[in-house]
Design a protein that fits this description.
The complex is a heterodimer.
Chain A: E1 2-4, E2 33-35, H1 36-58, H2 63-77, H3 86-101, H4 105-124, H5 128-137, E3 143-144, H6 147-163, E4 175-179, H7 184-188, E5 193-195, E6 198-202, H8 207-236, H9 241-248, H10 271-278, H11 281-293, H12 298-311, H13 315-330, H14 332-346, H15 361-366, H16 378-381, H17 384-394, H18 398-409, H19 413-425, H20 436-454
Chain B: H1 3-8, H2 21-27, H3 34-43, H4 47-55, E1 73-78, E2 84-88, H5 93-103, E3 107-114, H6 121-125, E4 134-136, E5 139-144, H7 166-182, E6 188-192, E7 197-202, H8 205-208, H9 212-221, H10 244-265, H11 274-278, H12 284-296, H13 306-319, H14 326-340, H15 346-350, E8 356-357, E9 372-373, H16 389-400, H17 414-453
Antiparallel strand pairs in B: 1-2, 1-3, 3-4, 3-8, 5-7, 6-7, 6-9
Helix pairs in contact in B: 2-16, 3-16, 4-5, 7-10, 10-14, 13-14
The chains are: A mainly alpha, B alpha+beta.
Chain lengths: 455, 454
């Protein structure tokens, strides 16, 4: 795959194969030219799909719900103004993300799992012609069972279908005859009739043996990609593609809340009440600690300070707020001398004048608070006892609490926060929490709506 | 004096008078003895046949034969004093024979064929990337009667008698039929394990090349017990119908065996034992009705066995038209399956690198030879009559002075087994291997020709 800066139009990879399938198998990198902008953009779009799927799985969505979710995510993100380019976007984005996710064991595991799931649900939505095209492409030696054969086997096939509560075979349905070694899953669970070394697979069972092929191929490919990356590509592309690739795996893909335009201002007199009702746990904890200790260390000041900026706290108000607290511990003079500068810096009024963006969940989760720190993600760092107490203080019911704790224990920190949100506000958050400011703005919306309805 | 007599160092062994044969046989005490084993390996163990088997045709002169094949097979020897030697390999028939005669192992295990000579494996470990890995291995099964302890009352643990051995026989029938009819395998060797079970070696090329996942799938296809240690024999036959494999097993083998043999030989519905079967029926009203009948009754007037009578009553009640719940009707099958269906050791079958005892070994605890079992007549197999070391040695002695060279085995009880091994298993297998080797070779040659053409 060649990446170019020019406006040249990429040629189609699909034209060469007369395949009916519009689900590519990603067997080999396409020989296309890709514009640099597309390189990143396509990958980001696909990443939104993959993250959405990951989220859906973590929430325990059922297969029907997942099928809809995958369909919606794909439609929403993987379109292209030119219909003929849709499949190229699919292929290119997959291969770019291979570079991104090949680099550690954990990344590979995640990518493999989500891409396989994506494939599975896309496959389900396709017709049997597509299934056959895919089997051919994978080199699976299948034969379609003839009518004559079918009549001879009908009793046995019916018996099997009944034994696993599957639809009964009909003479106009399709059955495939494949060597039993190709479908170990189906053999192991006795979901197929086998005879003389061949398994007779119903149309709706085809997915269960295509998937392992897809999966094992991708697994091997990722290992190879990693080797190529570390030995060659990373260095070669260090000024062009490498920075993009390295940023993509940790990127936060939502709004950055650096301009709190939507919310208008946040005034100081409201802040305590708002902290109680609309802050996520991480910020609530920092806020309460600040109120109690009249001090926060650097990590906490950054995390909370930028959050408050995103919430709509103006610089003057921020200075007043922090000063009111800190002067109780270190005195007003020392505050002005040592801490005020930092706050102004956060707002882009000092130094190189970067207007810093509030931290996303991803960034907060990755941070490593030490002794005396209170920043970071509490779902990650709090002991179970402390977490229960803190959530209780937020008003999470004991039933919801157990679910939250469970998610926190299984390292689904953002999901834990989402469940907390849902418990506190009594309404669902389908998109999941990705950013503390998102938690805040969504909370505010709900509280506003409640206020209006009771008014 | 012959060699054996020298080794035994006893003059009274030198008897060539047929009248004294019986006395001779008594002179070798039963059981196991390292000296006897040496004689066994010297005169009876079929070294050459084992070599031919393990070579799968690669010991031939054909250009496609892989000369390194036999040398990449792992053997392991268990010596006296529990010394265990793994990763043994041999490069020829004579090396194998000398290795065995030399070390006189109490047990020989056969492992997989590796990608490289197992004795050189450490040299390859350095280069990472798993160069040392199994590439071929027979599909194997191990069935042990001690896994059936909750289905038999006559024996337990390592003991076997003619009342419970038939459980092994029907396991052989069920699995053998499935391996041939369902999976299409042809070259299958069943072997008595020497004490309390059977082993199965599936040697088709396709079987040898199966990976671990595929082996696990086959093992799972055969698996029925989902219970834990509390309910080890709990069989759960859900669904409105059974898979054709289970139906065939039930109708052709299990049901008749249960009703005609096991019920009576194990007295499964006797007063002390019927409760266990009643526990498998999830309907209180039925079980209390049966209990009521059975607690009161004396011996049935007809003279029929009480177990048979009670079983009829149980079936009648469970399968009568009145019973609506499908689970109830299914109980009859569940009971039969839970007592009779084969219980395999899953771990043995799932991994390519699992070591399994070689056929024709002698079991150190019983002195019995691990002889092949012919599945077509497995009903006739009698584990209490399998040749023992001492019996064989007695026979050698009798035959020893008359026979010459390797034909000694033919004059002993081993003769039948070795002939069966060669004629019914080895020869057809080697013929098929030869065809496979030559066939794939000519395909390759043709491909090479085609690719050169343009």
């Amino acid at each position: 795959m060649e990446v170019v800066r020019s406006q040249k139009k990429p040629s189609s990879a699909a034209a060469s194969a007369d395949v009916v399938s519009n689900i590519p198998l990603y067997r080999s990198p396409p020989t296309l030219e890709v514009r640099l902008e597309d390189f990143e953009r396509f990958a980001v779009d696909r990443l939104l799909v993959l993250r959405g799927i990951s989220d859906g799985l973590a929430r325990g969505k059922k297969p029907d719900e997942m099928e809809k979710l995958v369909n919606d995510l794909w439609k929403a993100n993987m379109r292209h103004p030119q219909a003929s380019e849709v499949i190229n976007k699919d292929i290119i984005s997959h291969f770019v993300l291979r570079l991104v996710y090949c680099r550690t064991e954990e990344l590979r595991k995640w990518f493999l799992s989500i891409e396989t799931t994506l494939f599975r649900y896309r496959f389900r939505l396709e017709s049997s012609d597509v299934h056959r095209a895919l089997m051919t492409e994978l080199g699976i030696p299948y034969k379609v069972v003839t009518n004559a054969e079918f009549e001879g086997l009908k009793d046995k096939l019916t018996q099997v279908a009944r034994s696993v509560s599957q639809p009964l075979p009909t003479s106009d349905g399709t059955y495939y005859k494949v060597p039993f070694e190709e479908v170990p899953e189906l053999v192991a669970s006795r979901r197929v009739f086998i005879q003389k070394g061949y398994a007779y697979v119903a149309l709706n069972q085809v997915v269960s043996f295509i998937i392992p092929h897809f999966r094992s191929h991708l697994s091997k490919a990722l290992v190879l990609t990693n080797r190529k990356w570390t030995s060659m590509i990373r260095e070669q592309e260090k000024d062009r593609l490498t920075p993009i690739v390295e940023a993509l795996s940790t990127s936060y893909l939502g709004p950055d809340y650096s301009q709190a335009k939507e919310l208008g201002e946040m005034s100081l007199k409201d802040i305590d009440q708002v902290a109680r009702t609309a802050f996520p746990l991480c910020m609530r904890h920092l806020f309460d600690t600040l109120r109690e200790d009249h001090h926060l260390k650097h990590g906490g000041r950054m995390q909370l300070g930028l959050f408050l900026k995103g919430v709509g706290l103006k610089l003057d108000d921020a200075l007043a707020f922090w000063k009111a607290e800190f002067s109780q511990k270190v005195g007003a003079e020392r505050f002005d001398k040592e801490y005020a500068y930092g706050i102004r810096h956060n707002y882009g009024k000092e130094g190189k004048r970067t207007d810093y963006t509030p931290y996303s969940c991803q960034k907060i989760i990755l941070s490593t608070p030490g002794v005396g720190d209170h920043h970071g993600c509490p779902y990650r760092h709090f002991s179970e006892e402390n977490l229960r107490a803190a959530l209780g203080k937020m008003g999470v019911s004991s039933r919801a609490l157990d679910d939250v704790i469970e998610k926190a224990k299984t390292k689904h920190y953002q999901l834990a926060c989402t469940l907390t949100y849902e418990a506190v506000h009594g309404s669902s958050c389908d998109a999941g929490i990705n950013h503390p400011n998102q938690y805040f703005s969504d909370s505010q919306k709900i509280l506003e709506a409640k206020k209006l309805s009771t008014a | 004096m012959t060699k054996e007599e020298e080794q035994n160092g006893r003059d009274d062994m030198l008897i060539d008078d047929p009248e004294h044969q019986n006395a001779q046989l008594d002179a070798f005490p039963d059981g196991f003895n390292p000296n006897y084993l040496k004689v066994y390996y010297g005169r009876l163990f079929p070294h050459a046949d084992m070599f031919k088997w393990m070579s799968y045709g690669n010991d031939g002169k054909h250009p496609a034969c892989d000369q390194s094949y036999f040398g990449r097979r792992e053997f392991s020897f268990t010596l006296d004093n529990d010394i265990y030697l793994r990763f043994q390999s041999f490069n020829s028939a004579s090396e194998l024979e000398n290795g065995i005669k030399d070390k006189c192992p109490f047990k020989i295990d056969i492992g997989p064929v590796y990608s490289v000579d197992p004795s050189k494996r450490l040299a390859y470990a350095q280069s990472g990337d798993n160069i040392f890995t199994p590439v071929e291995r027979e599909l194997v099964f191990d069935i042990d009667i001690s896994d059936y302890d909750d289905a038999r009352y006559c024996c337990s643990g390592a003991d076997v008698c003619l009342d419970c051995w038939p459980l092994m026989t029907i396991a052989v029938k069920v699995i053998d039929t499935a391996l041939r009819d369902d999976f299409g395998f042809n070259h299958i060797l069943w072997v008595y394990s020497g004490r309390r079970g059977v082993h199965c070696w599936v040697c088709d090329g396709k079987a040898r090349r199966l990976n671990n996942e595929q082996r696990a799938a086959i093992a799972d296809y055969f698996r029925l017990y989902k219970g834990n240690s509390n309910s080890k024999s709990k069989v759960s036959l859900l669904g409105p119908a059974l898979h054709p494999f289970l139906v065939r097993s039930y109708v052709d083998v299990l049901r008749d065996f249960f009703e005609e043999k096991l019920l009576c030989s194990q007295q499964l519905l006797s007063d002390e034992r019927y409760e266990k079967i009643l526990e498998m029926i999830p309907d209180e009203s039925i079980t209390s009705e049966l209990r009521g009948k059975w607690q009161d009754s004396r011996r049935p007037a007809s003279g029929k066995d009480v177990n048979v009578v009670r079983w009829e009553q149980l079936k009648h009640l469970l399968q009568s038209g009145k019973q609506k719940a499908p689970g109830i009707r299914r109980c009859v099958e569940e009971i039969v399956f839970s007592f009779t269906y084969p219980r395999l050791d899953m771990e043995v079958s799932k991994h390519m690198n699992h070591l399994l005892k070689a056929p024709f070994c002698v079991h150190p605890k019983t002195g019995r030879v691990c002889v092949p079992i012919n599945p077509a007549i497995c009903d006739e197999f009698d584990p209490t009559n399998v040749p023992t070391l001492s019996k064989l040695l007695g026979e050698i002695n009798t035959a020893g002075l008359q026979a010459e060279g390797d034909k000694v085995w033919d004059r002993t009880s081993m003769g039948k087994s070795i002939r069966y091994f060669r004629e019914s298993f080895l020869q057809p297998l080697l013929k098929s291997c030869k065809e496979e080797i030559e066939g794939s070779h000519s395909v390759k040659v043709q491909q090479a020709k085609n690719s050169l053409n343009w």
